[in-house]
Amino acid sequence: MDVVKRPYNSASLEKVSPSLFSGIPMRKRRELGGMLFLLPGFIFIFLFMIFPVFRSLYLSFTEYNFAFDPKPVFVGLDNYRNVFSDRYFLASFKNTVVYSLLFFPSIMLLSLTIALLLNRELRGTGFFRTSVFLPVVVPISLSGIVFQWILNDNFGLMNFVLRDVLPLGFLTQDWLADPNWAMLSIVGVSLWKFLGIEVILFLAGLQAIPKDLYEAAKVDGANSWQSLIHITLPNLKETYIITGIWAIIVSVKVFELPFIMTQGGPGTSTLVLYQYMWNTAFMFYDMGYASAIGFIMGIIILLLAFLNLRINKES
Amino acid sequence: MKFKPSFSNIITYVVLISLTLVFLAPFVWTVFTSVKPDSEIYSQTIRLFPTKLTLTHYERVINKMQDFPKFFFNTVSITFWTLLLIVLLATTSGYTFGVIPFKGHKLFLAFILLVLTLPYALYLIPVYLMLDSINVINTHLALILPYAALNLPMSILIMRGSFKRIPKELEEASIIDGCSIFQTWWHVMLPVVKPSVAVVIVLAFINVWGEFMYGRTLTNSPDAQTLAIGITFLRDEAASWQFGPLSTAITLSIIPPFIIFVAMQKYFVKGIIEGALKG
Amino acid sequence: MKKMWILSIVTLLMVLTASVVFAGAQAEAKVESGELTVGAQAWMLEKFKLDDAAKKFMVDHPQINTKVTKVEHADTTSYILQWSSGKTSVDIAIGGSREQAVQYVPRDLVIDFDKGFFDDTLRREDFIPAFLELGNIEGKQYMIPMMGEVMYIVVRKDYMREAGLVDANDKVIPAKTWDELYEYAKKLTKKDGNTITRLGLGIDWGYDFIHYTYLACLQGLNGTIYEKGTNKIDFTSANAKKLVEVWAKLVKDGYSTKDVFADTNAARTNFKSGNVAMHLTAHSRLNEYADLLGKDKISIMPIPGTAQNGSVAFIHGMTIPKVSENQEAAKMFIKERLMDKDYQVWSLEKYGKLPVLSRNFEGVDSPEWQEILAAVQIAKTAPLYKDFAKLQKDMQIEFQNGISGLQPVEVTLANLKKSIDTIDITTGLK
After folding, report:
1. Could you give all domains of chain C from N- to C-terminal order, each with its CATH number?
2. Collapsing DSSP states into helix, strand and coil, what is residue C94?
């Protein structure tokens, strides 16, 4: 076992592997070869992610109107300072928080419930699981189009079902054009789109709970409700963290659905950070300010990720 | 897999069936609309089920809308090349990462985790400027390169985990047999991690097939647009809402991901779990 | 070990060659001499016979291989990038108004038509002044109009008849004030319990039209779109406030609706299905609606006050990039084909897109077109600000907030006043 733990003991390996480069120690050669294997992937990540992050960081300290300015002009922290007096930034920040506060608890609760139901493994579970999961593979822009149509006031399926199929006519709304409902509607569509992923994660968590725990509880005379409260839910701790952080990241990154379904409207009711950044960059060509908004979002996500790491370490 | 008509079982079924109805309704609605004649799509009262079936919309989308086949071809081509790149890069980088210790290993890992958490939009502006400077905006390449890069961190992590799980003895034995690193990688390690490669492919396929933001920004004509982008313009252009062709286009463009999903559901589920654990 | 090296190199090479192959394959659509490429927004291919124009042009000039390509609507970003790096995928870029064109000017990316475009066959005076003005930036003609539009109200005449809003000659009686228009909307709205089955007035408040809508209504009320003594759009006058109040009231009372907030085409779609009686929008919907619902059922009426004060016009214009190697051919194509009466009248009669040359209206004698032509002659244009896109977005947001009652009308106007005071309202040119 000792050998397995320290497999790269160069002395032991070199003896048995004759090679043209026998002058170079085996370990070094392995490292060198490894670097070559790593290189193409590294170049890609460097070119398209690491380098752009630094470029963005630089742009965020400049004023750069892409159409009018020949070159970025360094302005220090101006862009970061300006966000605090920019009412649209503040509105989109607030909306992102509102979206998160609506989306996060509902997706956690719903997906846990569905996972618990599916975990009972009744006949037909496979079918139910597949149908909950199906929306995940649909391109998100197409989901947006279909729901924009379904939620239309006059010719949408939603109001038709409420009015003519179920006797719930009083619930009909102009879902996307009413400022009170637009954000809720987008949260609803997001749930439809993303629930499947969280259900899968919860199912995996549920299946990892040792069966004998339940059996022991049964012996002790616990009913199924009690074993849910005392065994199932506490044993999902790790899963909560995973699903939780995932849901947070999805919340902060929300973009496509409002972009397609409402373009941030009515007014500012569904204007989220991502959309505001996109508008600033690709409608107003204000690349510097847009980069600053992007970095603020990045910092928020990093803070949350860091928080997650802390919680992870503690438990 | 048993059914006892107990109270809790009935409740479970009622909840699951109504949820399924909600989840499937948009699909059913779209597919039904695509086979309804116009007279039923635009009738005064909405009709859920078609009374007459017609394939005119399909004929129109495939034969008359020049852009749809273009979008379809673009999507297939972009997805194919992207997947090829991802698999190549992730299996090589992931191998080193998983089994060969090297200097800067931790730093690189930290970078990968960092770029995974930052919003993609942050890369968008510089990537746009960069791709433009090499003259590829609005080409397939403008999407292939960034798509490969965007999916790479996660794919590398998945492959790294998978290579790591291979017992060290296997690699050692191959080195003792005189295999070079390449031979070890190709003949010994890769066959073992095939399932993870499948996971990477399935995850990346779904991501690339439906990606929106980059595609929307880095392309500007049907020459390079994918289905997920192009179809949003089919709608905008239409002087009136042409729901028939629209639903048909949507139906046709979700068939490939559905096939992949059904055929590789196992890997997909695995990918989601691994992806979330790593992300 | 050797294989290891080889593999790495091969991988890199593959990536590189793939790049080159792809770049090459995709870049081939670029200009060669004798090849004229016209880039137009998708809908234009339907509403102007561009393909046919290209074919005819090739008959006259067999050495110039002319083709039309489709571009996403008014995507200035990609043109700026292409042109500033010395490349172009088109020789004529069709789309947008001077708000788009002005973005090409600071870096000297488009040609100035003053030099060698106008001649005896096509004089400046031949153009309808407002339309030509819409291609003019600080005295230079960087854009030539191809089609023109003007803000108007398109109405369902049969509904108006029912409501008694036509005169003895079966002509629609125009609403002279916004109060009157409100009454019209009220009369024309039909409700079934709480559900509106027919909407009195649809107004285009979506992002794409909000600025035209506001400016046209304001021009009708005040006879100017500017704040007194400035070149800033007016958000402070009593009439501006009155206007937004009426809008909010229309929505609140259910005679107009917010559905255009989410779907910019909502009023148009609903008009076509017979659920809207009046639609404040670009006049060109007239044809679209008449084709679908029957000529007899559709008519037009000016926005209150615009019959005297003028409405707001806009164009779909053309620019020629400086980097194009086929500038002369491009100019020829514009003059010979795109200004051709047959094409312009075809677009007018079929899709309501206005000819930009006064002479092309000759012989078009329907009373509606005469009325529109008169309106266009006195129409005004939106101002040219460097930050107009930002202002336009702010207008969409603030008006929608004000109209839907999320904030008082005063706040909407105060916010917009703040916007106009902070943005750059110069043309951005030195």
Report:
1. 32-149+314-377 (3.40.190.10), 150-313+384-422 (3.40.190.10)
2. strand
